[in-house]
Amino acid sequence: MRIRPTVEVDRLFAPDPAHRRVARDLYDGIAGLPIVSPHGHVDPALLADPDATFGTPTDLLIIPDHYILRMLYSQGIRLEALGVRARSGPPADPATETDGRRVWQLFADNLFLFRATPSGLWLADELRDVFGIAEPLTGDNAGAVYDDLSAKLARPEFRPRALFERIGIETLCTTDDAADPLESHRAIRASGWSGDVRPTFRPDGVVNLLAPGWRDRLDALSGAVGREITRTSALVAALEERRSFFRTMGAVAADHGVESAYTASLDEVEADAILARALRGETTPEEARRFTGHILIELARMSVEDGLVMQLHVGSLRNHNRTLFERFGGDMGADIPVAAEFTRNLQPLLERFGNDPRLRLIVFTLDETAYARELAPLAGHYPALRLGPPWWFHDSPNGMARYFDQVIETAGLYNTVGFNDDTRAFCSIPVRHDIWRRASANWLAGLVVRGIVDASDARVMAHELAYGLAKRAYRLDVTTAPR
Predict the structure, then answer these.
(1) How many helices and strands in the chain, by DSSP H and E?
(2) How far is CA 10 from the centre of its chain?
(3) What are phi and psi of 364, to 5 degrees?
(4) d(CA 57, CA 154)
(5) How far is the C-alpha of 27 from the C-alpha of 444, rounded, in Å?
(6) Which pLDDT score, from 0 to 100, does residue 95 have?
(7) Tens digit of each residue's pLDDT (9 = 90 or more) over 199-248
(8) For position 477, what pLDDT does the model report?
(9) Strand extents, DSSP E, 284-390
(10) Contact 120, 126 (CB under 8 A)
(11) For position 97, what pLDDT does the model report?
């Protein structure tokens, strides 16, 4: 049976009775739509083996979730105590690293920290709607909930493929390194399973010359294409070759995470000189910035030619806590937003390709101040540019409301791309999409009760926000927008 939300019917809707009635009607029309998840970080290995499981409740819901880790760490709880294995430094208590029940109890004892946060909403909805645990998690019932979850996770209907189908996922896109052989995706395709799981090409590890492990990533890319990469032209050719392979495996998009939206074209001599210094370990931050900006324009050209949607995620200073990174690695909750500028930084790329409808450039930002000032006007003008949904720290009811208010009047609805969950936490997919659908219905209801759009238009717009925009933005559907 398809998983459906069981939360209070009017949650996230405005308190005014007339507004609520319209929001409820709009939400009811979209709540059961299939889920299109065109950008995220779910491990495809979970779906490659039909008998794969999620492991323990701690493995599923705590250890991989950087939202949870960062909040608990901010309150002085050591990551070792949460079951995170260190890659350097003194060894942790082996009992803590292996005892999922102990970690779960610690988490439940500190669940109050997540009150009024998106993580708190997501977890409560997952436990109730995905796993059928109606009683709220507390320190007192943590052991019983752990046992209940453990028993369910061992059952066939709670294996990843079974949940994929029960959740109602139509398409799921993963995020994969440029040199990845995509063995899990091969296994999914070879198994004959009907689930639509697609890779996404992500070359950040070789495009950013200062990325941790850059040389190892470049060597891996060299191995994947079977030749040495010492010139910029060789790097570009390798990226083109790998994109072609990803497309044969069903990829519809490429993804690029950058601190800045800076783009610039370099001549061959300067680009090769910067790459040569990088190979000697002598790159400066300014050289790395210029090289990445140059390659981004090359990647845009590739998207024009091969049709992969180009996603640009801007504004995260990665691994801000250097001590934590050196001990545990990345994705521990220490990535912090920075201010971003788009109008001038994207101009070199847009001058070359912004007027070409063959390019689909979707821009995401962690700097909300750019929404109305730069991004909505840019998306409302250039045929190639679309504006992505609220991302990361802004994937929340309030963040969504701010996004709608600042963006749609200038960009228009059809220059946005609906929702993508951008999650590593598989079981959060349905609850994140449900929150987006509720927030969309509530915003549209406000337009209806104020006479800005009529009810019939609002119903079409709600369907678009929940489903249609994402399908067309990622070229998963060739149909045109409803009129």
Answers:
(1) 23, 11
(2) 27
(3) -120, 150
(4) 11
(5) 10
(6) 47
(7) 999 999 999 999 999 999 999 999 999 999 999 999 999 999 999 999 99
(8) 80
(9) 309-314, 316-317, 336-337, 361-365, 385-387
(10) no
(11) 45
Coil, helix or strand at residue 276:
helix
CB 41 within 8 A of CB 470: no
DSSP state, residue 380: T
Superfamily for domain range 160-473: Metal-dependent hydrolases (3.20.20.140)
CB atoms within 10 A of CB 93: 12
115: left (phi over 0), alpha (psi -120 to 50) or beta: beta
Low-confidence stretches of the chain (pLDDT < 50) are 1, 94-97
The two three-digit tokens of residue 226, written as one number:
């079977």
The answer to whether domain 53-155 has CATH 1.10.2020.10 is yes
What count of Cα atoms within 13 Å lies in the side-chain half-sphere of residue 379?
A: 29
Pairing verdict, β 253-258 and 309-314 = parallel
Smallest Cα–Cα separation from 66: which of 364, 429, 336?
A: 336
For residue 67, give both structure tokens.
């939202």
Every domain of the chain with CATH number 1.10.2020.10 lies at 53-155
pTM summary value: 0.95
Phi and psi, residue 216, nearest 5°: -65, -40
Q: Where in the chain is the domain with CATH 3.20.20.140?
A: 160-473
Element spanning 114, H or E: none
Q: Which of 59, 60, 105, 61 lies closest to 85, judged by CA? A: 59
- pLDDT (0 to 100) of residue 8: 73
